[in-house]
Each structure stands twice: as C-alpha cells, then as structure tokens.
User: What shape does this take?
Amino acid sequence: MIEPSLALYGDAFERVDQVIQDLLETTGVRYGLLVDRKGFVLSHKEALWAPRPPALDSVATLVASNAAATAALANMLGERTFSEQIHQGENGTLYVESVGTDSLLTLIFDASVPLGKVKLYAKKSITQIAAILEELKDIPPVQLGEDFSQGANALLDDLLG
Amino acid sequence: MSTINFAAREINCKIVYYGPGMSGKTTNLKHVFSKVPGHLRGEMVSLATEDERTLFFDFLPLDLGTVQGFKTRFHLYTVPGQVFYNASRKLILRGVDGIVFVADSAPNRLRANAESMRNLRENLQEHGIDVRDVPIVLQINKRDLPDALPTAMIRSVIDPKGELQLFEAMSDKGVGVFETLKTVSRLVLERLSQNK
Assistant: This one.
C-alpha cells in the first residue's frame, strides 16, 4: 500500500460532516470537501444557497494530484511539505490545507469571503477533523467476502460486456 | 488498498494505464468514455499539452453500481509516457490498485516498451510496492500496424516469464479495450474480496 487508506465510519463520518457544515456556516464558504491523498472524496458539504457544484470526482482528483506535485516540489527544495495551497481567481478562491498526513480539506468560496477569516476558522476545523481521523486508525479493516466479488463481477459484465 | 468510505458506503479503486509515449493509453480512456453510458461515468479530465500529449494525467471515473450496499467506483488514470515526465508518473502511481501496461507493436518502440516496464518496476519499488503485489494486465496495442512485431517478441522484453495476462488491441478502433479493462477490474475486485 503506497498511501494510507482512510475508512470513514458511521459516527466519525457524521462528526466530520458536522465540522465541515459548521465551517461553511461560520465563514460563508460555498463548498467544503474532505479529500484523501489518492483523490477520493471522503466527505462533502455545500452551502444551502450554493448552485450545483462542479464534478466533485474531478475536483478531488485534481486537488490531490496538485497536492502531490506540490509536496514533491517541497521535497526538492528541502522543505518537509508545503501544507497549504491557495488559488485565487477573479470571482472565487480555492483553498486547500493538509489534515494530518492522510487527507486534504478543500474549500471553495466567493471573492466576497475574506481569505483570512476562512484560514482562521479552517485551522480550528482541521484540528477537530484530525482528532477524529486519529481515532479511526485503530479500527480493523473492512472484510468483504466472496459474495462481494461475485456481485461485482456480474456488474462488470453489465458495464463492460 | 482501495479507499472504503463506510458511511457513504462507497468503495473506490484506482486503475492506472502505464506504458511508453504514444502507445495508446489516452486512446483507451477515450474509447471507454465514448462507449460507457453517461450516467455510469463522470467527466473525463485531460491535462495535456497543445499537441495532445499527456502532460500530467487523464482521469475518468466509472460507476460500477452497488454491490452488497457498497457503491463501487473505478477511477481510471493514464500517465504521461514520455521519458522526462517521470516525476509525474511516480505521483500518479500513488495508491494504485491495478495497472494496465499498454505496449506498442511498432518495431522501433520495442526498446521503449522495455524501458517503460523497467521504469514501472522502479517507480513501484520506490513506493515500497513489489510488482507482484499489484494486479497488472498487459495490452499489446496497435496490432493493425503493417509491420507489427509478433506479440511473443514484445512479451519477451516486458514480461519474459509470461506471468501477465495479455490482450491484443487496436485501441483507436476499440478492439481489446473493454476486455483489458474488465480483466484488470476483476483482478482488483478479487484482491479486495480477499482483503489484501
């Protein structure tokens, strides 16, 4: 296994969801995602007023790849890591910050939302999420049996002929 | 190891198309994108140069459906094949669950095939993965080239022990594309159910 895999379970998942929801409400951020380092969405929340989000799979993949490329750059430059990324456009901002070693908090917000405020509250949320993820480290891996494999193979036949 | 999101009940698997430059990795993904119904796939993201050479990666998410309550999804990636993009290739191999190695049948690409396979082994090793621990399927592409080399000769430089499942393909015509993807997906799912 190259990258640590995360499994977000019931209660922990809801707590992470709630932390992101609170962050959105406090700061006015439009979309909040927790993405693992492999580029999969672990959790996502959007503000009530927000329009339909862009394809989240694509956002997560690009954010994780960007973070991986930035980390490789950091290593080349003798840094342990560059923990945050900010991309500011004319109308909006994408802000990404590491949550421990396994995941990335990704926030997308309008230009009217002050970046400083988002960063301030995001740091607090990251501490909370990191603590929840830490609790999950001791959970035994999920067991999927033979039935799963058979069911999945039948679907593969449907999808790919 | 695939990412399992229990609360959302999702299983996500990452499949990477590897191989030398211009061997047809992106063409494989484009064919899948064009043939799979829209509700079962997401958008295809291509980070390519102006002349359509892959710069970082191509990405295509596929929805398999729900298995035992788990929404199961494959993320397909290609790597840039050109030799000097190795840093990018290494990044894309992070968290890989299955690999399709796309080899080129052209005689003047025989060495490039061999070098790309060696590069794959090295990159996996750098991530601490034994090449035998990841399901790999071999696709020998461009079989319709008039001077295509025999598959046995190509295999002898990339898989001399004959350990990998091999598919012949013409990815621009869609031949062999789904067979290859189906086999690697099946191998990934088998490993998943064995909890490896």
In short: The mean pLDDT of chain B is 91. The longest strand of chain B covers residues 54-67. DSSP finds five helices and eight strands in chain B.
